[in-house]
Specification:
Elements (H helix, E strand, L loop, with lengths): L1 H9 L11 H23 L6 H8 L3 H5 L5 H25 L6 H18 L1 H8 L10 H8 L1 H15 L12 H14 L5 H22 L11 H16 L2
Helix pairs in contact: 2-3, 2-5, 5-6, 5-7, 5-8, 6-7, 6-9, 6-11, 6-12, 9-11, 11-12
Organism: Gordonia polyisoprenivorans
Protein name: TetR/AcrR family transcriptional regulator
Keywords: DNA-binding, Transcription, Transcription regulation
């Protein structure tokens, strides 16, 4: 009898979950607000974002949402930072899968990753690279660093190609004013690419963003190109043919 009682005492009882901390509750609410923010980007566009609408969907009063995200502009900023970061991570992952000596292949992989991300999430692409949202000014101290990660990666890949001696040097006119601007870019991104090579980098960037946006925003028309990714690859390949020797 004593043995049986001892066994009963030793058996663990049902576990009870510890109460959620205030920090955990805050994290959960902020995650949900961002998730709904992304959904509303797709359905209403950036200009149509509303914290009151998000509060209704969460089933709480609007003041409860404002405790975590104080304004629409703050929500836009968080969505921007999240979007830039996610895009950059996708580009980094795609680029890092290519051999470090395949400079052209690495840049092509980065470009394709940008397109894939944009096609998969056109609403967030529009937030990052579409028309400015009326009445909203992105705070530079929070958005510049994440917002320049992708171009910084492309410039780093161009610098590596230049160091390897495989980057072409186009014959283009660079004014003193433009050269000064390029000096600032060199200082910001920490490279010594010559002016002509940096001009090529801006051309590459414009081609990637432009070609991606034309497709994502339907500017080619619905039946013009049956396999849009093939067009994109050919476009970037054409640009890279002028970038590499």
């Amino acid at each position: 009898m004593l043995s049986h009682c001892a066994m009963m005492v030793a058996m663990p009882g049902p576990t009870t979950r510890a109460p959620r901390t205030r920090a955990e509750n805050r994290q959960t609410m902020e995650t949900e607000i961002l998730r709904l923010g992304r959904e509303h980007l797709s359905t209403h566009g950036a200009a149509g974002l509303s914290l009151r609408a998000i509060a209704r969907e969460l089933g709480v009063v609007s003041s409860a949402v404002y405790r975590y995200v104080p304004s629409r502009d703050e929500l836009l900023t968080r969505l921007l930072v999240e979007g830039y970061t996610h895009l950059a991570e996708s580009v980094d992952a795609a680029t890092d899968r290519i051999d470090t000596e395949d400079h052209r292949g690495r840049i092509m992989a980065a470009a394709k990753a940008i397109r894939i991300w944009a096609v998969d999430d056109p609403a967030r692409w529009a937030l990052l690279y579409g028309s400015p949202v009326p009445g909203y000014a992105a705070p530079a101290d929070r958005t510049v660093t994440p917002g320049t990660r992708v171009i910084a990666r492309l410039i780093a890949e161009l610098a590596a190609a230049h160091d390897a001696g495989v980057l072409a040097t186009p014959d283009c006119e660079v004014s003193p004013a433009l050269s000064a601007d390029l000096d600032a870019i060199r200082a910001e991104f920490g490279n010594d690419l010559p002016d002509a090579a940096l001009v090529t980098g801006t051309l590459l960037w414009a081609a990637v963003i432009g070609a991606t946006s034309l497709e994502v925003f339907g500017q080619y028309g619905s039946e013009t190109f049956s396999v849009p990714e093939h067009l994109f690859t050919a476009q970037i390949d054409a640009v890279l043919s002028s970038v590499f020797r």
